[in-house]
Amino acid sequence: MITSILPHHCRRHVVGRASLSTLASCDNVLIKRHDDREHFVTTLTLNNPQKYNVLSSAMIDALQLQLDDIAKNDSLSVVVIAATGKAFSAGHDLKEIHSHQTNEETVELFQKCCKLMISVNKLPQPVIAQVQGVATAAGCQLGKFLYSWSMISYFIVVIQNISHTCYVQLLPVI
After folding, report:
1. Which residues, other chains included, contact 173 with Cβ-Cβ below 8 Å and sequence gap of 6+?
2. What are the chain's domains?
3. What stretch of H or E contains 158?
């Protein structure tokens, strides 16, 4: 079974679920979900390769919705987070952040991202990150954050071929 999160203009009557025909008619599916019921595995695939799978507000919302649904599903044993394109994730969408009119909008985005990372840690299923290509900033931070919680959350990172990771820490200037 495949489900997806679609942008508003591509949604039909059921939000968060789509048939294969709906997926084929919309290029803007941010998260593709494939549930392999035979092997009890679900794969969430970040699908915005043109923007290197940036963690935009919409991508975070889509991923959060899927994780909330997976957390309630006792029939799934493992979660794989993968990505399409050259990059696993380039981190936050800087254009989106710079377009914010107020600091509150940026704070809200970071709070959503924090909630997302905590949700992955609290999943009852083990999580495997299938990292291909580049993972930078918040895209890499997700793996770093989860790695620090690995005793609790059973998070595994699988790096394919030659991947590059980069984590930038911004410190306040005094």
Report:
1. none
2. 2-166 (3.90.226.10)
3. strand 155-159
Radius of gyration of the chain (CA): 16
Q: Using an 8 Å Cβ cutoff, are 105 and 150 in contact? A: no
Q: Tell me the sheet residues that pair with 32.
A: 4, 45
Residue 67 near residue 56 (C-beta atoms within 8 A)? no
The angle that helices 137-148 and 103-122 make with each other, rounded to 10 degrees, is: 40
Give the residue-averaged pLDDT of 93-118.
91
Burial of 52 (0-12, 13-18, 19+ CB in 10 A): buried
Contact 66, 33 (CB under 8 A): yes
β-partners of residue 131 are 159
Position of tokens 């593709």? 32
The DSSP-derived string for 59-126 is HHHHHHHHHHHHHT-TT--EEEEEE-SSEEE--B-HHHHHH-SSHHHHHHHHHHHHHHHHHHHH-SS-
Within 10 A of 104 (CB to CB), how many other CB atoms are there? 9
Per-residue pLDDT for 26 more than 90?
Answer: no
Q: Give the pLDDT of residue 143.
A: 53
The two tokens of residue 109 are: 């985005």
